[in-house]
Design goal:
The complex is a heterodimer.
Chain A: H1 14-22, H2 27-42, H3 51-56, H4 63-76, H5 81-94, H6 100-112, H7 116-130, H8 135-151, H9 153-158, H10 161-168, H11 174-190, H12 201-213, H13 216-226, H14 234-244, H15 253-267, H16 275-291, H17 296-312, H18 332-345, H19 351-361, H20 367-383, H21 388-400, H22 404-420, H23 429-434, H24 442-454, H25 462-470, H26 478-494, H27 500-511, H28 517-532, H29 534-541, H30 557-564, H31 570-574, H32 628-637, H33 654-667, H34 690-700, E1 713-716, E2 724-733, E3 736-745, E4 755-758, E5 766-767, E6 782-790, E7 803-809, E8 814-820, H35 835-844, E9 850-855, H36 862-871, E10 875-882, E11 885-893, E12 899-906, E13 913-919, H37 925-937
Helix pairs in contact in A: 1-2, 2-4, 4-6, 5-6, 5-7, 6-7, 6-8, 7-8, 8-11, 10-11, 11-12, 11-13, 12-13, 13-15, 14-15, 15-16, 17-18, 17-30, 18-20, 19-20, 20-21, 20-22, 21-22, 22-24, 24-26, 25-26, 26-27, 26-28, 26-29, 27-28, 28-29, 28-33, 33-34
Chain B: E1 2-9, E2 14-19, H1 29-39, E3 48-50, E4 55-61, E5 64-70, H2 76-94, H3 99-104, H4 106-116, E6 117-118, E7 121-122, H5 127-133, H6 139-148, E8 178-191, E9 197-211, E10 217-222, E11 231-233, H7 239-245, E12 247-250, E13 255-264, E14 274-282, E15 288-297, E16 306-313, E17 318-325, E18 329-333, E19 338-344, E20 353-360, E21 373-380, E22 389-395, E23 402-416
Classes of the chains: A alpha+beta, B alpha+beta.
Domain Clathrin adaptor alpha/beta/gamma-adaptin appendage Ig-like subdomain (chain A): 708-818
Subcellular location (chain A): Endomembrane system
GO cellular component, one term (chain A): endomembrane system
């Protein structure tokens, strides 16, 4: 007799039958019936209708029956909250049972019942269980706190369970410690700001002791927690490392990888001269290699992590190349990862072996793998200079096989090799040209066209070749079209006499017959360039390209350092920081490696440099194949490193003229307006680099950090100010307010001697420094200035409240204008009110001061709303879910100390929010509401 | 932490689901099926899949997919290790980890899953503890249960659960006290066309079967412990003793368990026991080719090599093969294109060979790829690395146990390129 009998049904209807059996007097029959119910549940059948009948079976001394009923309860309590209350008494009673197994079972199950009403009853039993004499009950109760926090965070905090949980870290039983750490970590993950896991040398010591004695899973939790600790000096780091290293020999691979994470992180603090540093490096290799003999799924995760580790510390695995050799029956996801690591480890010492392997792989069956192997050969050539020649000849051998996808892949990588070693391997071009007809993939076609264009002077029939592509121009993909356009222009510049017709043809195809804006724009630019100044065109289009170097996809160093802190997590599998993909981005804290102490190699630790400021020596990275187009465009047109004099004839013209003047004559009546932002010359950009500005337009807009910044608006039109045009906006970044101004001289004379003054205003805004325009502003020139502001000026209430009157002076005259500033620039960073205080204040402010507003058409969810508001210093203090609506309670403080309290009601599925504001100075409320509007809608 | 678990069979039916937090709809598995479809081969389904709201982490074991649903950032290895532990537990309880076995014991499975994980945190995964909480099904017990009405759920707290040796239960009693160790070594190797070794390493394990009463404290020492420089230990082993004396000192769990696993990789230590002579060729513009392989002993330390099987994935264009084995028998599956030659053992007097013709699809171009030969073999009474157990001592108990060590060497991922 097996359990499969529980799946059979009878004619009468299953539910009916079960109901009868559940109410049977016979114990055995009852139990069998509950088992049938559970069996249906396991396959996802809905048996919630039986709820009252099953709950009736709960009062029993048969443990198996009790467990089965509990299993049922957990699944269905949520759908029957009123009925679930019936079960509460039994739970409370069971929490007092003399048998610890039953006490633990009861508190565990209660925590799993995600019904609000039940949680209130749970508190008392849980409090007792957290202090139970039996460690089994305590460790179960610790997890229960995490469960309860998930259901009702507020309750857990109010009841002081978090403190009890913190106390459990010092418990005498290692299992309890491990579970307390696990529970705290989970709670901390949803509350990144709360300083729950307050690690200090004492608690670290306790964790390290528990580490040796608890279960493998507990070890993982503890190690992950240790990884967040920042040792105070290298000695402490070393002592922790010493106590963690034995974990590297654990049979559980997750323990091993978590230990590796701790070591990789703390190693950062050790000086490289230390003997211990070398020992540690040696100890890291074997466990990493051992991970590769595990099941394929484990191998995959391990390989993704090893990929990070070899980028950070290549020395660890440099002698272990062979373990990454691909076995033909590895799953494809393992093969591809191994290949990637092989290339990272390739060096002059082992390149022969690697190449032999890669060549072997290129004859395998799996197409994806073969392609990647061929590509890998190209990457080797670029990485290890000595091997380039062999790589090229290997690639030529592969081209001879005539296997279509191999040939195409080979051509794509040979193009990269040309860019790394110009004027070295061009002899193979002839062989490549033979395969022109077999290329059917856009990437390969584009690569081939690039080669033909680049080396047009050495290919006798380059024009014929390119012309043959031109016939089907409209059927080609954009990638190929763009490449063809550039190649033909190059050809024209090299052999102008024979190819005039060809270039005319391609320019008209690109500009007139295409509806692809990229293609049209590039066509126009070439056209314009060729017709105005062929010499300049030559210098731009045929400019010497910077060499590409080493690796195609090295992870950017700051990101790599962050990822090292996430070894073993999902982030390490995706090679993205958790903030980039974890659901809702619950304000994930950025982790960073500890700075090296007592180190004489500060350049070695990239985190010493401010984040986001890549060091100058960073190698130029080849664009990934997808970016190729954009990159080529920049290569051809942007200011190259060597800096050829770009469009020297038009220094005073700026980009607008370049496009405006000549083009019209070229393209007749096509309305090709100047770009809307009228080429703002960014600070530091030379006036002449019109073209590059044009391309930078996209990147220059919207670099948001700190609170929301509105786009610049024109405050003072040129007509009103004798040619001076002022546009601007207000920003608040890390506590300082500034007024970002853009001054444009539209007059015919030079302007100088600028100064600025504010009238008295509601919040005492005043310039914190004089307006500094360093050089005279010549006609048609624009400068951008960021004027720091403070709020210590004299105060006068304005109408509207946020009105600001400004006077600007220059050598010509004095001009006046007024503008409205968004209130959120006045929201200070310490505007987070204490929870208790909030409640008290809310009650304290009279109801007539409350104002209600509707924010319409805002498609964000509560999480996104609060994170967005937070970046503008509106802080969410609590979040509650009332009848399906999310209620956010928020506070903010203005520079003059006025507090504003807010309650934001968000209904799922409804894009209108209700905002209630309470403030002792109710006149600010409408402006706060406006600030909400602007922040949320932009 | 782990949110939910779905068990899925090869034909894509979800036949069991278990949720440790709130219920997640089965529809989340659609993303998995999508990935499965894309992967073509079941073994190529990526183990980590992201969906808009969840992550799916899966393993493929015994023709079943164990798909877990994750909602927050967790260590994927932790999840994968846990899933394997679930599969191991099923294997342990029901003798096999199959859809039929799981369905036959669905209630026990459910109880087990509930016991193994609480709110996504592992609770009890040691087989010793689980078996005290939930007794494995036996025919005898189910008969007794149905007569006496007793249950298969233990009603006391497992003793080992919280002690410093959570892996062992108290009060173990045997009439025959025995301790057996199996030293099993697998050779992973890639041999290139010309017969030279591209890569070779030994993956070794020592599996123990310990049936000793009371709380025995064991010490296992080796003749040549230096071989073991890359080792993973069962938690019962005292790491300090190993570091200082190179002795495995431990209080064992009761029953079967893996004591250590190790890796020997320095190339000169890895002896390759067989060689293969091969010639596989396809003629240009004709629909046939020749196939000829011979296997012989190489460094076999004087032991017999047995249980040899050769499997070859032939190129897609191969229609059929007509071969003559000098020894053993062969099959060719025209659908999967897999040739399997069951050789048996090698007698040095007459080396086993397999020769004959390969029929290709007519008109198809000559295949580009060279098939790899995958070789399986077994050598009894030999640990190819040379590892030897010196002695086993028992402290803490008075009786005299039976002791035994068995060695065996097998081929792991052993492939010969052609």
């Amino acid at each position: 007799m097996t359990d499969s009998k529980y799946f059979t049904t009878t004619k009468k209807g299953e539910i009916f039958e079960l109901k009868a059996e559940l109410n049977s007097d016979k114990k055995e029959k009852k139990k069998e019936a509950v088992k049938k119910v559970i069996a249906s549940m396991t396959v996802g059948k809905d048996v919630s209708a039986l709820f009252p009948d099953v709950v009736n079976c709960m009062q029993t001394d048969n443990l198996e029956l009790k467990k089965l009923v509990y299993l049922y309860l957990m699944n269905y309590a949520k759908s029957q909250p009123d009925m679930a209350i019936m079960a509460v008494n039994t739970f409370v009673k069971d929490c007092e049972d003399p048998n610890p197994l039953i006490r633990a079972l009861a508190v565990r199950t209660m925590g799993c019942i995600r019904v609000d009403k039940i949680t209130e009853y749970l508190c008392e039993p849980l409090r007792k269980c957290l202090k139970d004499e039996d460690p089994y009950v305590r460790k179960t109760a610790a997890v229960c706190v995490a469960k309860l926090h998930d259901i009702n965070a507020q309750l857990v905090e109010d009841q002081g369970f978090l403190d009890t949980l913190k106390d459990l870290i010092s418990d005498s039983n290692p299992m309890v410690v491990a579970n307390a750490v696990a529970a705290l970590s989970e709670i901390a993950e949803s509350h990144p700001s709360s300083n729950l896991l307050d690690l200090n040398p004492q608690s670290i010591n306790k964790l390290l002791t528990a580490l040796n004695e608890c279960t493998e899973w507990g070890q993982i939790f503890i190690l992950d927690c240790l990884a967040n600790y920042m040792p105070k000096d290298d000695r402490e780091a070393q002592s922790i490392c010493e106590r963690v290293t034995p974990r590297l020999s654990h049979a559980n691979s997750a323990v091993v990888l978590s230990a590796v994470k701790v070591l990789m992180k703390f190693m950062e603090m050790l000086s490289k001269d230390l003997d211990y540093y070398g020992t540690l490096l040696k100890k890291l290799a074997p466990p990493l290699v051992t991970l590769l003999s595990a099941e394929p799924e484990l191998q995959y995760v391990a390989l993704r992590n090893i990929n990070l580790i070899v980028q950070k510390r290549p020395e660890i695995l440099k002698h272990e190349m062979k373990v990454f050799f691909v076995k033909y029956n590895d799953p494809i996801y393992v093969k591809l990862e191994k290949l990637d690591i092989m290339i990272r480890l390739a060096s002059q010492a082992n390149i022969a072996q690697v190449l032999a392997e890669l060549k072997e792989y290129a004859t395998e069956v799996d197409v994806d793998f073969v392609r990647k192997a061929v590509r890998a050969i190209g990457r080797c050539a670029i990485k290890v200079e000595q091997s380039a020649e062999r790589c090229v000849s290997t690639l030529l051998d592969l081209i001879q096989t005539k296997v279509n996808y191999v040939v195409q892949e080979a051509i794509v990588v040979i193009k990269d090799i040309f860019r790394k070693y110009p004027n070295k391997y061009e002899s193979v071009i002839a062989t490549l040209c033979e395969n022109l007809d077999s290329l059917d993939e856009p990437e390969a076609r584009a690569a081939m066209i690039w080669i033909v264009g680049e080396y047009a002077e050495r290919i006798d029939n380059a024009d014929e070749l390119l012309e043959s592509f031109l016939e089907g121009f409209h059927d080609e993909s954009t990638q190929v079209q763009l490449q063809l356009l550039t190649a033909i222009v190059k050809l024209f510049l090299k052999k102008p006499t024979e190819t005039q017709e060809l270039v005319q043809q391609v320019l008209s195809l690109a500009t007139q017959d295409s509806d692809n804006p990229d293609l049209r724009d590039r066509g126009y630019i070439y056209w314009r360039l060729l017709s105005t100044d062929p010499v300049a065109a030559k210098e731009v289009v045929l400019a010497e390209k910077p060499l590409i170097s080493e690796e195609t996809d090295l992870i950017e160093p700051t990101l790599l350092d962050e990822l090292i802190c996430y070894i073993g997590t999902l982030a390490s599998v995706y090679h993205k920081p958790p903030s980039a993909f974890v659901e809702g981005g619950r304000g994930v804290v950025h982790k960073s490696l500890p700075p090296r102490t007592a180190s004489n190699e500060s350049t070695e630790s990239p985190e010493a440099a401010p984040a986001g400021a890549p060091t100058g020596e960073q190698p130029d990275v080849i664009p990934t194949q997808g970016d190729l187009l954009g990159d080529l465009l920049n290569l051809d047109l942007g200011p190259p490193v060597s800096g050829p004099p770009l469009a020297t004839s038009s220094v005073q013209m700026g980009a607008v003229d370049l496009l405006g003047g000549g083009l019209d004559s070229l393209i007749g009546d096509t309305n090709f307006g100047a770009p809307p932002a009228a080429a703002p010359a960014r600070p530091g950009a030379p006036i002449g680099s019109g073209l590059s500005d044009l391309f930078d337009l996209t990147s220059g807009v919207g670099t948001l950090s700190g609170s929301y910044v509105a786009p610049k608006a024109v405050w003072l039109p040129a007509m009103k100010a004798k040619g001076l045009e002022i546009s601007g906006t207000f920003t608040r970044q890390v506590g300082s307010i500034s007024m970002d101004l853009q001054l444009t001289n539209k007059a015919l004379q030079v302007m100088m001697d600028f100064a600025i003054q504010f009238n008295r205003n509601s919040f005492g805004l005043a310039p914190a420094a004089p307006l500094q325009v360093h050089a005279p502003l010549s006609p048609n020139q624009t400068v951008e200035i960021s004027l720091p502001l403070n709020t210590v000026g004299s105060v006068m209430k304005m109408d509207p409240l946020n009105n600001l009157q400004v006077a600007v002076k220059n050598n010509i005259d004095i001009f006046y204008f007024s503008t409205l500033y968004p209130l959120h620039i006045l929201f200070v960073e310490d505007g987070k009110m204490d929870r208790q205080m909030f409640l008290a204040t809310w009650k304290d402010i009279p109801n007539e001061n409350e104002a209600q507003f509707q924010i319409r058409d805002c498609p964000l969810n509560a999480e996104a709303v609060s994170s967005r508001l937070q970046s503008s210093n509106i802080f969410t203090i609590a979040k509650r879910n009332v009848e399906g609506q999310d209620m956010l309670y928020q506070s903010l403080k203005l520079t003059n100390g006025i507090w504003v309290l807010a309650e934001l009601r968000i209904q799922p599925g409804n894009t209108s929010f209700t905002l209630s504001l309470k403030c002792r100075a109710p006149e600010v409320s409408p402006h706060v509401y406006q600030a909400y509007e602007t922040i949320l809608k932009n | 932490m782990i949110h939910s678990l779905f068990l899925i069979n090869c034909s894509g039916d979800i036949f069991l689901e278990k949720h440790w937090k709130s219920v997640v709809s089965q529809s989340v598995c659609d993303y998995f099926f999508e990935a499965q479809e894309k992967a073509a081969d079941v073994e190529n389904v990526p183990p980590v899949i992201s969906t808009p709201h969840h992550y799916l982490i899966s393993i493929y074991r015994d023709k079943l997919f164990f798909v877990s649903v994750i909602q927050t950032e967790v260590p994927p290895l932790f999840v994968i290790e846990f899933l394997h532990r679930v599969a191991d537990t099923f294997q342990d309880y029901f003798g096999e980890c199959s859809e039929a076995a799981i369905k036959d014991n669905v209630v026990i499975v459910y109880e087990l899953l509930e016991e193994m994980l609480d709110n996504g945190f592992p609770l009890a995964t040691e087989s010793n503890i689980l078996k005290e909480l939930i007794k494995p099904p036996t025919i005898l017990r189910s008969v007794v249960n149905s007569i006496t009405g007793s249950s298969n759920v233990g009603d006391t707290l497992p003793t080992g659960q919280l002690s410093n040796i959570p892996w062992r239960r108290a009060g173990v009693k045997y009439t025959n006290n025995e301790a057996y160790f199996d030293v099993i070594e697998e050779i992973d190797a890639i041999i290139d066309k010309s017969g030279s070794t591209v890569f070779a390493e030994i993956q070794g394990v020592i599996d123990a079967c310990i049936k000793l009463s009371g709380m025995p404290d064991l010490s296992l020492s080796f003749m040549n412990p230096r071989l073991l420089d890359d080792v993973s230990f069962h938690p019962c082993i005292r790491f300090k003793r190993w570091e200082s004396e190179r002795v495995l000192s431990f209080i064992p769990p009761d029953g079967n368990f893996r004591l250590i696993s190790y890796r020997v990789s320095s190339q000169n230590l890895v002896a390759i026991p067989v060689y293969v002579k091969h010639s596989i060729s396809f003629k240009e513009n004709s629909s046939c080719g020749r196939f000829d392989i011979t296997i012989g002993p190489k460094q076999n330390m004087g032991k017999t090599i047995e249980g040899i099987t050769v499997t070859v994935h032939m190129p897609k264009v191969v229609l059929n093969m007509s071969l003559t084995p000098a020894q053993g028998s062969y099959t060719f599956d025209p659908v999967t294109k897999v040739l399997t030659w069951d050789v048996g053992k090698i007698t040095p007097q007459k080396l086993p060979s397999l020769k004959g013709l390969v029929n290709l699809q007519s008109g198809a171009p000559k295949p580009e790829e060279n098939p790899s030969l995958n070789i399986q073999f077994k050598i009894q009474q030999l640990a190819i690395s040379g590892l030897k157990v010196n002695r086993l001592d028992m402290y803490g108990e008075k009786y005299k146990p039976f002791k035994g060590v068995k060695y065996v060497t097998k081929a792991g991922k052993f492939q010969v390129r052609t």
